[in-house]
Amino acid sequence: MTSGDEVVVALDVGGTGMKCALVRPDGATVHAERHATDAARGPEAVVGTILDVAEGLAGKARADGLTPVACGIAVPGVVDEARGVAVWSANVGFRDVPLRDLARGRLGLPTALGHDVRVGGLAEARLGAGRDAGHVLFVAIGTGIAAAHVVDGSAAVGAHGAAGEIGHILVRPDGPPCGCGRPGCLEAVASASAIGRRYAELSGAPATAAEVADRAAAGEPLAGRVWREAVEALADGLATGQALFDVATIVIGGGLAQAGPRLFDPLRTALHERLTFHREPRLVAAALGDEAGCLGAALLALDTLAKESR
Ligand SMILES: [Zn+2]
């Protein structure tokens, strides 16, 4: 299992791009490459690209004198890890795609299929900002908001493959509509996209969440108000998460985490104000950046391999 030349073929498939790597069992990346997902081609073409890229990586490993021992693939949406099926995905278009068996058939390697945010959380909890904490909540904040609850290095999947949808916690009953069809979900108020949208709505000028953070820090009242509203909604969501999971560490990842202290300082204060008898978690920024999904896919594949060989 831990001999020096073994690697895992790992892919993190997103709506626009695929991050791909050869990862050693200790989490070291020995080779990385990126490809376009080009989801507009339809799910069958995307699956074809995933299999081609995975096969190419396994071939690259062998050509470099390495031994591919497993394959891990992370995809967004609803993922049934037990059956290895990409059940549903809005941005890649998957509907009940048996991706694990397709990859296993093509590569002849044990393969695991995971959810992008859950495996990202797995990687942060084991190799990144949450290491040394047994109970970790990883929250990715970008165009949407999703979470992974990791206990002792293993992420809860849920009965239907949909655990961790913290973005759809109701925080503002009279809030803006969410993509899921209900008003007032956390991600409709506090995702990076929602922050930009809200600022544009009030100011009449488009802005990214990063620009809103910059302008708030520079003292612009409107940006300050939009940023504060988002931070307060996030704190409401995290307080709910802490009430449910009682974690030691909350790791915030995704694009919004790049706001650094402008996010973390007020968010820590707002979360502190909302906790009564609950123990306050450490609130930290993710450490692995956009490699987390790929590393997590590799970890999930290694976990599967360890279980199968038991
Ligand atoms: Zn929603």
Oligomer: single chain
The tally of beta strands, per DSSP, is 13
As residue ranges, the low-confidence spans are: none
Mean pLDDT: 95
Helix percentage = 25-40%
Q: Would you list the SSEs in sequence order as H and E?
A: EEEHEEEEHEHEEEHHHHEHEH
Would you summarize the structure shown here?
This protein has 310 residues and is an alpha/beta fold. Helices cover 40% and strands 23% of the residues.
Structure explained in plain terms:
The model has no long low-confidence stretch (mean pLDDT 95). This protein has helices at 43-63, 99-107, 116-126, 186-190, 192-203, 209-217, 221-245, 261-274, 292-308; strands at residues 6-13, 17-23, 29-36, 67-75, 78-80, 85-88, 95-97, 111-115, 135-141, 145-151, 154-155, 249-253, 282-285. 40% of the residues lie in helices and 23% in strands. With 310 residues, it is of the alpha/beta class. Helix 1 (43-63) packs parallel to helix 2. The strands form three sheets. The chain has a five-stranded mixed sheet, with helices on both faces. Zinc ion binds next to loops.
Write the layout of secondary structure elements.
Blueprint: E1 6-13, E2 17-23, E3 29-36, H1 43-63, E4 67-75, E5 78-80, E6 85-88, E7 95-97, H2 99-107, E8 111-115, H3 116-126, E9 135-141, E10 145-151, E11 154-155, H4 186-190, H5 192-203, H6 209-217, H7 221-245, E12 249-253, H8 261-274, E13 282-285, H9 292-308
Parallel strand pairs: 1-4, 4-8, 9-12, 12-13
Antiparallel strand pairs: 1-2, 2-3, 5-6, 6-7, 9-10, 10-11
